[in-house]
Amino acid sequence: MPSPPRVPFLSLAPGADRPLIDAAIARVLDRGWFVLGPEVEAFEQEFAAASGAAHAVGVGNGTDAIALILRALGIGAGDEVITTPLSAAYSALAVMMAGARPVFADVDPLRLTIDPEQIAGVIGPRTRAILPVHLYGQPADMTAIERLAARHNLAIVEDCCQSHLATAAGRPAGTIGAAGAFSFYPTKNLGALGDGGAIVTNDRTLAERIKRLRNGGQTDRSHHLEPGVNSRLDEMQAAILRARLPRLPEWTARRRALAARYRNRLAESPVDVLPELDAGHVYHLFVVRTAARRDLQAHLAARGIETLIHYPVSIPRQPALASADPADCPVAARACDEILSLPLHPALRDDSVDEVAAAVHAFEPRTVTS
Questions:
Q1: I want to staple 99 with a disulfide (CB 3.0 to 4.6 A). Which of 76, 173, 179, 201 is the partner?
Q2: H runs (alpha helix) in the chain
Q3: What is the pLDDT of residues 146-175, one digit of tens each?
Q4: Helix count (H) and strand count (E) of the chain?
Q5: Bridge partner list, 348
Q6: How far apart are CA 99 and CA 213, in angstroms?
Q7: Has residue 370 got a pLDDT over 90?
Q8: Cα-to-chain-centroid distance, residue 230
């Protein structure tokens, strides 16, 4: 077996918070209530407060969160939702789950989030909503997106699955549009020990409908008002998330400090560091660009440094999206050939950042001569 990397990309095993997690799990086991109980209710209140929102609704995962928001807004068959080509494919798949068609607007070449100018060019008579993704923890240009949405009477649904506690021009991510969708997949800035998700909104009526839709459309145990789904955050994950939520501000500050150290150490290196264009960036990932990505990744791996690619294939080029007849997005496609995620997580040591940066500086891209 190959030896483990000296600098792993991420460790998902609980660390200093293990005693709190153990106590949370024991509390749920002792109570014997496992679905839609007091832990979920308490977490919804606590996460709403942490996110600067009036309401939060716990659901099964981040994909369901997006789809449920769209359904609750009445968006479905025959409608179109404009979204980004550079994200996990689940962003667009959630639009399809709601019965709508995803339409792609290319990304800003620097920010790599959806480009408002490109959005304007694809708005059509069937467009009902814009789904920006706050990619890698950096918010999209929400000021420009808001202006477009207001001009064309479109809903904004924020994909916040990588942006817990982020702010966009000082406003909490997830509270700018109709609602925001969050994921608690274990790799996220606030991760569960399994799947989980939540929706935040300031609209009480929308929150109440989403609560109904997540639970089969029930108004009570035996009466289904409308066709819903089964997408419920369970008590165990809610308790674990409650144990971890108070530490999220500390973890976020640590991510920002590590990112600042990377930026300092990678100055004048052979890679381009994605710019920080909003101080509300929460650095779910730290991403660099190079035309020699394959060689750089091999160079780092040989030095015991694990890296990942988020994402190697743009969503319009995924076979699963063929039925949506997506237009290609060349800026995103090029980025997908160049982006590389370096290790960054709250437990990462400063000297590990220095080691990664030194290894990047030692990289010598091969030149091609004709």
A1: 76
A2: 18-31, 38-51, 62-72, 90-97, 116-122, 142-152, 204-213, 235-244, 248-265, 293-302, 330-338, 350-361
A3: 999 999 999 999 999 999 999 999 999 999
A4: 12, 14
A5: none
A6: 15
A7: no
A8: 22
